[in-house]
């Protein structure tokens, strides 16, 4: 659940947005644009594609704001819209095979990473997040939502429109793959938490 301050703040925005206040919408966009772009980049969209999808995301959010009931945090609701917009863009403009990894989860050459909770050093944290970008996209989305955005597996399942157990599988496989790939970079002591 959203904390009290966010609920109050979001509620004020919602009231203003429902009333058609363009300044409130501009504040809303400013506050959440980095999360929307993070979602787009995680899905593998180029900068120009991410800008298009982000625009479509905020347009869809503006149109749907009257249906927002506050059952999820505003950021979770917006991530869900951004994720769907990004997937739709990929389906229309790229083959779906680019979105899904092979059965063994092969990633591009290079280093892979694991969640920031197990990484203390800033330099290592940077290596970790750079490596997350190289995971299969669905795994990377789950990792970013869970570890960076602090979303529960239940919320991630809603955002990704999949089962909660599927999200847990993505996270498990991502942690395992990242542990293997980071062992050389960070050291054999790399322990991937649950």
Helix content: 55-70%
β-strand number: 0
CATH architecture of the largest domain: Orthogonal Bundle
> If you compute it from the alpha carbons, what radius of gyration comes out, rounded to the nearest whole angstrom?
17 Å
CATH top-level class of the largest domain: Mainly Alpha
The H-and-E topology, N to C, reads as HHHHHHHH
Can you tell me the number of structural domains? 2
Average pLDDT works out at 75
Q: Examine the coordinates and then state which fold CATH places here, giving the name of the CATH topology of the largest domain.
A: Rna Polymerase Sigma Factor, Chain: A
Quick recap:
The chain has 194 residues and is mostly helical.
Chain-wise SSE layout:
Layout (H helix, E strand, L loop, with lengths): L3 H15 L3 H21 L4 H18 L9 H20 L28 H11 L4 H12 L4 H8 L3 H23 L8
């Amino acid at each position: 659940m959203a904390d009290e301050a966010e609920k109050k703040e979001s509620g004020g925005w919602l009231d203003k947005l429902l009333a058609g206040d363009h300044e409130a919408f501009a504040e809303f966009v400013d506050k959440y644009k980095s999360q929307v772009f993070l979602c787009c980049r995680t899905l593998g969209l180029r900068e120009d594609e991410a800008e298009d999808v982000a625009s479509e995301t905020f347009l869809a959010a503006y149109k749907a704001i009257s249906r927002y009931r506050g059952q999820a945090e505003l950021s979770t609701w917006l991530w869900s819209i951004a994720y769907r917009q990004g997937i739709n863009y990929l389906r229309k403009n790229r083959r779906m095979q680019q979105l899904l990894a092979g059965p063994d989860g092969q990633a591009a050459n290079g280093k892979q990473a694991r969640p920031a909770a197990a990484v203390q050093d800033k330099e290592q944290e940077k290596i970790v997040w750079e490596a997350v970008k190289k995971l299969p996209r669905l795994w990377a989305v789950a990792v970013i939502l869970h570890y960076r955005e602090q979303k529960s597996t239940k919320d991630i399942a809603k955002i990704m429109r999949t089962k909660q157990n599927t999200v847990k599988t993505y996270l498990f496989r991502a942690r395992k793959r990242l542990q293997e790939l980071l062992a050389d970079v960070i050291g054999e002591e790399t322990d991937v938490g649950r």
